[in-house]
């Protein structure tokens, strides 16, 4: 079981290139990417996404890449020195001819775009990709390992809370028979009080009391709740992306406990229901970070 929160980093140096990769991830419904690296490396986005997707299923992944060119020739700035000499000569003659003051600075050369030119490297992907790929793989592995460690911590916490859910529903189940009996007695006394000694059809009265008492029976809800608890526990022990299934089971647990709270009129059961709902909400917050 993996968390969606993690961090990974890798630094790789060769004779001609130094690459630094940083990765971080947070929870998200899907797998999302956010890249922050030099424009010259933008063509590497598709293969980098494939590397990440091979090991990460869900989460918002942010990647930052820095590099230092030690001779691989990613891009080179070429100066047309012949043209620069000619520009300097002409500017100097103009200053002397017209008596112009001031020094000739680099700003004058920048007015002529042909003086400077960026020479794009050829076969750049072949030159840089092996090094970047190696660094990205190391960073992703580091990220995944941290997500696994965080996932184990979440798993231990959820297992403890799951035990509390199982204990709580067991206590409610023990109160179920007395709850129905109490409800029947309460209804019978109330009806007899309303009739105030007036004879009534005992069979009909018993049928109505039994029907109303049955409506407060929470046995089925308790059975379904206990079943969902078992499914949640077995899912926690599985590998892979289980976050969505866990979230679904929590929704079902919450639905059952809400029904129990609505049907049961017993104060003890109501108190236990509140405790169960609090635990479910805490588990829901944790599950949002599970891949």
Layout of strands and helices, then pairs:
Layout: E1 6-13, E2 17-26, E3 31-36, H1 45-53, E4 59-69, E5 75-79, H2 81-98, H3 106-110, E6 116-120, H4 124-195, H5 202-215, H6 219-236, H7 243-263, H8 267-287
Could you write a compact summary of the structure shown?
This protein is of the alpha+beta class and 291 residues long. It is built from eight helices and six strands. Helix 4 (124-195) packs antiparallel against helix 5 (202-215), helix 4 runs antiparallel to helix 8 and helix 7 (243-263) packs antiparallel against helix 8.
Describe the protein in words.
There is one protein chain. This protein is α+β, with helices and mostly antiparallel strands and 291 residues long. It has three domains: 6-72 and 124-147, Ribosomal Protein S5, domain 2 (2-Layer Sandwich), CATH 3.30.230.40; 76-120, no CATH class; 151-287, no CATH class. The chain is 61% helix and 15% strand. The chain contains eight helices and six strands, in the order βββαββααβααααα. The mean pLDDT is 86.
Q: Kindly state the number of beta strands.
A: 6
Order of helices and strands: EEEHEEHHEHHHHH
Radius of gyration: 36 Å
Strand order of the largest sheet: 1-2-4-3
Kindly estimate the percentage of residues that lie in beta strands according to DSSP: 15-25%
For the sheet with most strands, the description reads: 4 strands, mixed
**Which term fits the overall shape?**
elongated
What is the residue-averaged pLDDT?
86
Q: By helix and strand content, what is the structural category?
A: alpha+beta
Give start-end ranges of low-pLDDT stretches: none
The amount of helix comes to 55-70%
- From the N-terminal CA to the C-terminal CA, the straight-line distance is 7 Å
Number of domains: 3
Helical stretch tally: 8
């Amino acid at each position: 079981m993996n968390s969606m929160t993690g961090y990974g980093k890798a630094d790789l140096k060769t004779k001609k290139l130094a690459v630094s990769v940083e990765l971080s991830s947070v929870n998200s419904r899907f797998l999302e990417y956010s890249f922050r690296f030099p424009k010259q490396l933008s063509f590497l986005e598709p293969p980098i996404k494939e590397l990440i997707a091979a090991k990460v299923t869900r989460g918002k992944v942010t990647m930052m890449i820095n590099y230092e060119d030690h001779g691989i020739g990613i891009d080179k700035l070429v100066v047309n020195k012949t043209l620069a000499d000619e520009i300097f000569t002409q500017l100097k003659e103009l200053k002397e001819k017209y008596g112009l003051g001031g020094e000739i600075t680099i700003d004058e050369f920048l007015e002529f775009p042909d003086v400077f030119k960026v020479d794009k490297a050829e076969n750049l992907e072949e030159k840089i990709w092996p090094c970047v790929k190696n660094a990205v793989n190391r960073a992703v592995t580091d990220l995944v390992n941290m997500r696994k460690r965080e996932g184990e911590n979440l798993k231990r916490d959820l297992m403890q809370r799951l035990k509390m859910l199982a204990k709580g529903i067991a206590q409610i189940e023990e109160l179920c028979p007395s709850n129905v009996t109490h409800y029947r007695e309460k209804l019978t006394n109330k009806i007899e009080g309303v009739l105030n000694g007036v004879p009534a059809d005992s069979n009909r009265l018993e049928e109505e009391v039994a029907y109303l008492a049955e409506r407060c029976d929470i046995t089925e809800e308790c059975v379904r709740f206990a079943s969902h608890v078992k499914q949640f526990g077995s899912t926690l022990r599985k590998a892979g992306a289980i976050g969505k299934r866990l979230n679904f089971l929590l929704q079902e647990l919450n639905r059952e406990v809400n029904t129990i709270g609505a049907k049961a009129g017993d104060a003890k059961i109501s108190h236990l229901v509140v405790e169960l709902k609090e635990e479910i909400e805490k588990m829901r917050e944790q599950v949002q970070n599970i891949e």
